[in-house]
Input
Amino acid sequence: MNNKEFVTEIASKLGMSTSQVTSLMAGLTTEMASHFEEETQVSIMNFGNFEVKKKLERVIINPSTKQRMLVPPKMALSFKPSNMFKDKL
Output
């Protein structure tokens, strides 16, 4: 399912126009992104938790050249589905 199909399906279930749902989705993602920048967790009931985790720097080895390289630390977004959501799968 792509974004257009997703928005169309939500719009039909809620009885809203696709432009309204698109606007709501844009607002949701913008708000979530602002919380991720602050490194706070976002929990959606019966869906799951989004959390920003810090990945430490590490050394990797290029298999073809055997050269060691340092990967700098970075922030990564993780998702843990709720138990109810997992049970539906």
